[in-house]
Amino acid sequence: VKTIGVLTSGGDAPGMNAAIRAVVRTGIAKGLNVKGIMRGYAGLLKEEIVDMDSRSVSDIIQRGGTILYTARCAEFRTEEGQKLGAEICRKHGIDGIVVIGGDGSFNGACKLANLGINTIGLPGTIDQDIACTDYTIGFDTAINTAMEAIDKVRDTSTSHERCSIIEVMGRSAGYIALWCGVANGAENILLPEYYDGDEQALINQIIENRKKGKKHHLIINAEGVGHSASMAKRIEAATGIETRATILGHMQRGGSPTCLDRYYASMMGARAVDLLCEGASNRVVALRDGKFVDYDINEALAMKKTISPYEYEVSKMLSR
Ligand code: F6P
């Protein structure tokens, strides 16, 4: 491997810049040329490819977002798009690519690998929903950002003795909701993995808690459950308690990455380059039981993970 490329794809996540920096600087330290591919696979197809040096990744480790920009690309899901992508890599002398993104991005990486371009995936998403790894780049920052925001909503909710439903991101996974629900001391945590839609039970609990003297009722609702605004209206009508819905939205994806995200993203970025130098392809770097490991992308994509029933039970017990 002489020349490698790096791209970010799908939703951005804090810590992606730390990963890009690690790929560039590890690559250069190992005598490789490193190219930045702008705007994910969309930029690859448009040949938006720039030379990177150590200085092009200066002053970015503390910044949220991704300096390479990101995109979701429909054309790259087609066979023609993938073939064109591989041809463009060859034209630019790129024989290895590090793809930072989620499962969708790894699918694309797998296709490029089948077409002879060595690829390594790095798990980058705030959702923590990549089955092969215990950790994804951006999750730690996102839960801390959401936690701080929820604390603020809680202050006003308590002052007004209201019920608050706060919706957090996570696509169809409930990791952000679970972690914030526990860390923010929520009365209820609605997870797509477990919520059975029994709104009457929720309403009964709100009424009971009020009788017990609780001043507010905080519900953390995962995006995968959704419908926070209409739920708030129904709860208010049924309980007589003023209820507000707050959807935290994209603020959860921004901001300066935490130390943990910067550190793990740096280690994973270096590991990706090591793997390319060893001639590996179609692998994804993961953190399992505290160790950095790597998996075949097809195997990784076939894996399933879910929130442990024990952790869910504890979260319910602590909210009483
Ligand atoms: O995957 C990250 C994520 O923020 C999800 O939590 C959310 O469902 C989705 O991306 C939102 O995507 P977009 O930025 O395209 O609205």
From TrEMBL:
<dbReference type="Pfam" id="PF00365">
    <property type="entry name" value="PFK"/>
</dbReference>
<feature type="binding site" description="in other chain">
    <location>
        <position position="154"/>
    </location>
    <ligand>
        <name>ADP</name>
    </ligand>
</feature>
<keyword id="KW-0418">Kinase</keyword>
<feature type="binding site" description="in other chain">
    <location>
        <begin position="214"/>
        <end position="216"/>
    </location>
    <ligand>
        <name>ADP</name>
    </ligand>
</feature>
<dbReference type="InterPro" id="IPR035966">
    <property type="entry name" value="PKF_sf"/>
</dbReference>
<dbReference type="InterPro" id="IPR012003">
    <property type="entry name" value="ATP_PFK_prok-type"/>
</dbReference>
<feature type="domain" description="Phosphofructokinase">
    <location>
        <begin position="4"/>
        <end position="276"/>
    </location>
</feature>
<keyword id="KW-0479">Metal-binding</keyword>
<comment type="pathway">
    <text>Carbohydrate degradation; glycolysis; D-glyceraldehyde 3-phosphate and glycerone phosphate from D-glucose: step 3/4.</text>
</comment>
<keyword id="KW-0808">Transferase</keyword>
<keyword id="KW-0021">Allosteric enzyme</keyword>
<dbReference type="GO" id="GO:0046872">
    <property type="term" value="F:metal ion binding"/>
</dbReference>
<comment type="subunit">
    <text>Homotetramer.</text>
</comment>
<feature type="binding site" description="in other chain">
    <location>
        <position position="212"/>
    </location>
    <ligand>
        <name>ADP</name>
    </ligand>
</feature>
<dbReference type="GO" id="GO:0070095">
    <property type="term" value="F:fructose-6-phosphate binding"/>
</dbReference>
<dbReference type="GO" id="GO:0061621">
    <property type="term" value="P:canonical glycolysis"/>
</dbReference>
<feature type="binding site">
    <location>
        <position position="11"/>
    </location>
    <ligand>
        <name>ATP</name>
    </ligand>
</feature>
<comment type="function">
    <text>Catalyzes the phosphorylation of D-fructose 6-phosphate to fructose 1,6-bisphosphate by ATP, the first committing step of glycolysis.</text>
</comment>
<feature type="binding site">
    <location>
        <position position="244"/>
    </location>
    <ligand>
        <name>substrate</name>
    </ligand>
</feature>
<dbReference type="InterPro" id="IPR022953">
    <property type="entry name" value="ATP_PFK"/>
</dbReference>
<dbReference type="InterPro" id="IPR015912">
    <property type="entry name" value="Phosphofructokinase_CS"/>
</dbReference>
<dbReference type="GO" id="GO:0030388">
    <property type="term" value="P:fructose 1,6-bisphosphate metabolic process"/>
</dbReference>
<comment type="similarity">
    <text>Belongs to the phosphofructokinase type A (PFKA) family. ATP-dependent PFK group I subfamily. Prokaryotic clade 'B1' sub-subfamily.</text>
</comment>
<dbReference type="GO" id="GO:0005945">
    <property type="term" value="C:6-phosphofructokinase complex"/>
</dbReference>
<dbReference type="GO" id="GO:0003872">
    <property type="term" value="F:6-phosphofructokinase activity"/>
</dbReference>
<feature type="binding site" description="in other chain">
    <location>
        <begin position="185"/>
        <end position="187"/>
    </location>
    <ligand>
        <name>ADP</name>
    </ligand>
</feature>
<keyword id="KW-0547">Nucleotide-binding</keyword>
<feature type="binding site">
    <location>
        <position position="103"/>
    </location>
    <ligand>
        <name>Mg(2+)</name>
    </ligand>
</feature>
<feature type="binding site" description="in other chain">
    <location>
        <begin position="250"/>
        <end position="253"/>
    </location>
    <ligand>
        <name>substrate</name>
    </ligand>
</feature>
<dbReference type="GO" id="GO:0005524">
    <property type="term" value="F:ATP binding"/>
</dbReference>
<dbReference type="GO" id="GO:0016208">
    <property type="term" value="F:AMP binding"/>
</dbReference>
<dbReference type="InterPro" id="IPR000023">
    <property type="entry name" value="Phosphofructokinase_dom"/>
</dbReference>
<feature type="binding site" description="in other chain">
    <location>
        <position position="223"/>
    </location>
    <ligand>
        <name>substrate</name>
    </ligand>
</feature>
<dbReference type="GO" id="GO:0042802">
    <property type="term" value="F:identical protein binding"/>
</dbReference>
<keyword id="KW-0067">ATP-binding</keyword>
<dbReference type="InterPro" id="IPR012828">
    <property type="entry name" value="PFKA_ATP_prok"/>
</dbReference>
<feature type="binding site" description="in other chain">
    <location>
        <begin position="169"/>
        <end position="171"/>
    </location>
    <ligand>
        <name>substrate</name>
    </ligand>
</feature>
<feature type="binding site">
    <location>
        <begin position="21"/>
        <end position="25"/>
    </location>
    <ligand>
        <name>ADP</name>
    </ligand>
</feature>
<keyword id="KW-0963">Cytoplasm</keyword>
<feature type="binding site">
    <location>
        <begin position="102"/>
        <end position="105"/>
    </location>
    <ligand>
        <name>ATP</name>
    </ligand>
</feature>
<keyword id="KW-0324">Glycolysis</keyword>
<protein>
    <recommendedName>
        <fullName>ATP-dependent 6-phosphofructokinase</fullName>
        <ecNumber>2.7.1.11</ecNumber>
    </recommendedName>
</protein>
